[in-house]
Design a protein that fits this description.
The structure is a homodimer of 223-residue chains. Chain A is of the alpha/beta class and 223 residues long. Chain A is 41% helix and 18% strand. Chain A is built from 8 helices and 7 strands, in the order αβαβαβαββααβαβα. In chain A, helix 1 packs parallel to helix 4. The longest helix of chain A is centred in the N-terminal third of the chain and has 27 residues. At the A-B interface, helix 1 and helix 5 of A face helix 1 and helix 5 of B.
Chain lengths: 223, 223
């Protein structure tokens, strides 16, 4: 087992090396990079569809859609108007790594872009260990998943900067306590910025769009 | 990377060796073993709570609750009347393996039991690779997760025998097409037995209980 741990360490340090290169490129081009993580079905693709519909005309977005199998998400993003969409099929792997993202970014001119959204594989565990060169991880849960999820999957919440609670239109149909969910998340990571929204009904999305614009402006302003 | 793959193979074959020992013990004691897998928040613990409430008086259940962090699930199962509840905290690992289960089963007299439910870590990817000595994997999704999940996480559906669609009380509040979800699952694995139910409202649970009783009887009848 020691040998296994040693090799895992090597894999992670090689990943960190590649992630640092990606981060440097993003900085040079003043492009925001967001690594969007959640369980399967929390609404990562839906959020990106909405974001495209609302901001595609004024923001130049690159969308990288990771999946174990199928290009379903990439197809949805193209249909929603995504101009630069790169699918990554991991073929079984439970997370994206920096090498996959680095390849997906090849031949994209980042100087023409404002923001890169990396939609990770649906998995609340493994993607927490892999730096993809992002500015931040944004973790999402939905109101149908249980308000104790931050406590049960703490690593992901510890390593994220932002916490989205989606499907607030379904509040009241389950035992989910939204304040409790937020409290639990803040217990793990007191610095989390939080959004409450419904991709289906549109509630709360304006604040999300406003924040995305703010991130882009802030990055462009770096001297 | 070759070295990594080689060591992964070794880890898996050691896992298979331990899983075979667990399977043999379960057979000797004529105990059914179910490995319950899903994303976080699909309702694994809720299903076990309901199953305890309905069948605790006539079935002797052992409950193994795997989580990355916290004993929340184990606590819920104890509160629901679980008599033999063993939490496994993986401390970061994204799946249960046979060694963890084997340790959890230590000191439990399986001859006094009818069924062992192993509630895996909430993760639709990694637990598919680990045999825990179970009779079958039961994979669950909920109606709020999207009907394409079987296509996107095919390994889990290929390696499961039974497919539960939970939260049917929320049908109509999202774009989830339940027939499509079942069709998608059957495309991956034509032999899947399917249940449609709502742990919250109770719909469909009687068929589940009946099937559990049937499994127990069938196992006891092995000569």
């Amino acid at each position: 087992m020691e040998k296994k741990i040693e090799i895992e360490k090597k894999v992670l340090s090689e990943n960190d090396r590649l992630a640092a290169i990606i981060r440097e490129k993003m900085l040079e081009s003043r492009v925001v990079a967001i690594n969007l993580v959640s369980s399967p079905g929390s609404g990562k693709t839906s959020l990106l569809e909405k974001t495209l519909a609302a901001m595609n005309s004024d923001l130049r977005m690159v969308l990288i859609a990771g999946d174990v199998q199928t290009e379903n998400d990439a197809d949805r993003l193209r249909q929603a108007g995504g101009k630069i969409v790169r699918p990554i099929i991991t073929g079984g792997a439970c997370h994206l790594d920096a090498k996959m993202v680095s390849r997906a970014l090849d031949k994209i001119d980042l100087n023409g872009a404002d923001i890169v959204f990396i939609e990770n594989v649906g998995n609340l565990v493994c993607p927490s260990s892999f730096d993809l060169g992002e500015d931040m991880k944004v973790v999402m849960i939905s109101t149908t998943e249980g308000d104790d999820k931050p406590l049960k999957y703490p690593a992901m919440f510890r390593r994220s900067s932002t916490f989205i609670i989606n499907k607030i239109d379904l509040l009241g149909f389950s035992n989910f306590d939204i304040d409790k969910a937020e409290e639990n998340a803040l217990t793990i990571n007191g610095n989390l910025k939080t959004f409450r929204l419904s991709c289906l009904k549109g509630e709360g999305l304006d604040l999300w769009y406003q924040w995305i614009r703010h991130l882009v402006m802030e990055k462009k302003a770096i001297k």
